[in-house]
Specification:
The protein is an alpha/beta fold. The chain contains seven helices and 17 strands. The chain binds one RNA strand through helix 4.
RNA sequence: UGGGGUGUCGCCAAGCGGUAAGGCACGGGACUUUGACUCCCGCAUGCGUAGGUUCAAAUCCUGCCACCCCAG
């Protein structure tokens, strides 16, 4: 049986989730702190900047102690390996560009961990994301909205949340700014009050994801051909996993103008490069979609869409093609949509939903 | 082997006697809970080589070397 005012706090060891824990406690919830163990130290060189490393666990535990709440570590490394790392590697090998943080949110935080909360009788999962969840009485659906602090808004990485997940999730920082969070952490003497924000992929040491993939697969990357947009040979590439659509640096190709990756073909093991004007696409197809305020789109709607985490939303029109496919046509061409990345749709500060980019049309 | 042309940073390329532009690539940083993009900073005491003329040469002169083209 789930108790109404009980929560499991997802703590990363960072400032945000620590303050989220404090605020939840102050709201009268019965709280338990937790951390997901996502990989072993032998597998990954944990480093300070990532979330969920060893020192982060110490920080999270220290904060939990300070708050006087229990703190548990759950070993989810098997699921993480299957749902995040394996997918990550596979998508790169297929010429796509994965977003492991979104997968981790979907399958681990709001999947495994939320389930664990329920298993232990707790009604809510609390995270330190900057976004807001609201119940819409008219439609009886839960809505996901941007955070008040638009600079820090993280709704992009939460677009895949289901109604059930939204119903059982609390985001105490959604109405706050990052600086307010920091202040609270400092005022409360949290050890991580001044810790820098996490960045890069947590399971990839030094930010070198390609090395990680090579080590994971145990195979050296297959070199192949760089082609220009006319199909002529320009040079040898290091292996398709090293490239993503729109990439400029690291190609080693010199020309009159900067060269960017225009497409990656896994079958032919080729990477096509061209000038920046070759990267624009107006229409794209998204699969594995999720819609939040509505069950399905019966007709085309106008939205504002983002192709990447830090991007101003762009006006677009969306059609639903089938139960799992959206067609998104932007008013103006967009630069470098990459297969595997997430496209997220907004109406003002409301998240309509999103999907995984499958290609351009 | 004759005749012509060219040799400036990894690539392209300014310079035309007054003390080495720029772009690309590369390196570093900022930004960032993915990958990218973007922005900022750095990047030839030396201009194929050896001499010479000049107060002063990548720039003029001479030899040599390399590469390219045309003839054989």
């Amino acid at each position: 049986m789930l108790r109404d005012k009980s929560a499991l706090i997802a703590m990363s060891g960072g400032v945000d989730s620590s303050v989220a824990a404090l605020l939840t406690l102050e709201h009268g919830f019965d709280c338990v702190g937790s951390m997901m163990k996502l990989f072993s130290n032998e597998e990954v060189d944990c480093r300070e900047k990532s979330c969920c490393s060893l020192t982060d666990a110490d920080d999270a535990r220290a904060v939990a102690n300070k708050l006087g709440i229990p703190f548990y570590v759950f070993n989810f490394s098997d699921v993480f390996k299957e749902k995040v790392i394996h997918r990550f590697v596979e998508i790169y090998q297929n010429g796509g560009t994965p977003n492991p943080c979104i997968d981790c949110n979907r399958f681990l935080k709001f999947g495994k961990l939320l389930h664990r909360a329920h298993e232990t009788g707790r009604n809510y999962l609390v995270t330190g994301h900057y976004a807001q969840i609201k119940k819409d009485l008219a439609s009886d659906r839960f809505l996901l909205k941007k955070s008040v602090d638009l600079e820090k808004d993280q709704s992009y990485v939460l677009y895949a949340m289901t109604q059930d997940q939204l119903k059982h999730t609390l985001l105490p920082l959604g109405g706050m700014t990052k600086s307010q969070t920091r202040e609270i952490a400092i005022d409360n003497g949290f050890v991580n009050a001044k810790k820098q924000d996490s960045q890069d992929i947590c399971f990839v040491p030094n930010g070198n994801y390609a090395d990680f993939i090579n080590k994971y697969t145990g195979k050296p990357p297959a070199k192949g051909q760089f082609l220009d947009t006319d199909g002529s040979y320009l040079g040898e590439h290091k292996g398709i996993i090293y490239y993503t659509i729109g990439q400029r640096r690291g190609l080693g190709l010199s020309g009159q103008h900067p060269m960017y990756v225009c497409s990656v073909c896994a079958e032919a093991n080729t990477v096509t490069v061209g000038t920046t004007d070759k990267l624009n696409a107006k229409t794209l197809i998204a699969r594995d979609i999720n819609l939040i305020p509505i069950k399905q789109l019966d007709s085309a709607i106008k939205v504002h869409a983002k192709l990447r985490y830090k991007q101003l939303e762009q006006p677009a029109t969306v059609w639903q093609l089938d139960s799992d496919t959206l067609r998104i046509e932007f008013d103006a061409p967009q630069r470098a949509p990459a297969k595997g990345q997430a496209v997220v749709l907004y109406d003002g500060d409301l998240v309509i939903g999103g999907g995984t980019i499958d290609g351009t049309a």
